[in-house]
Predict the 3D structure of the following.
Amino acid sequence: MDVSFLGGPHPQRGIGIVAPFDFALDRELWRWVPDEVSLHLTRTPYVPVEVSLDLARLVSEHQTLREAVLALSAAEPEVIAYACTSGSFVDGMVGERTMSAAMEAAAEVPALTTSGALLEALLELGARRIALVTPYTQSVTQALEDYLAEAGIGVGSCAFLGLTRHIWKVPYRDVVQMARQAVPASGGFDALFISCTNLPTYDAIPQLEAELRMPVLSANQVTMWSALRRLGTRAVGPYQALLDDSARQMLVRDPLRDPPALQEPEPEPPALPE
């Protein structure tokens, strides 16, 4: 069949992604991306260190980031994102800002990090007190709590797995169980954040929002939301309150104040895969 009349592929807008060497969820990032945008991924060099504060610092050294950004420059991305939560919160807010600045200087385009995107998303939702889920050890989890506290975000409850490797192998059921553990029946939280870009969350988010009745954010979600926002477009995420205005409105409705007859029926979120 002659396809010459199609004139070739349409130009794609690009997002450059710098990820740690052990990142294994490329496909999850793509799920938030609309068809007209491409991702260009590169990884930091391998280092024989388990997930820890030491590893977070090694994969976020400025020279390492500059070299990774330069490796992406041939693809001419319009924005650069560092897709690593721990690597971008390990040295606090000043560390996160200097990382973004170092990437911008190397790429000459806007740059962001996962931890910076998280604060941006919490501001968007007006969230000041959150519940937290991480796959990390206690020390890495505490460093994240310290980063959030520095930004004026309180962590009222937390659950963590204590893993030092193979985080991408954690199944959805464990993510959901941790979320339930982190959010007590008494509630009182503005949002739940699930940390680590190597932890799968895409399909768990709508299910948890429907169950917990609050916005649920994840590391990969906020990273892609923030990067796509800088391109002037929206991330793809049905039934996710950060991305879907109708889903957000459903969560803020108070069933004790609104008569049932006046409430719109809630759309059912997709079934959670095993």
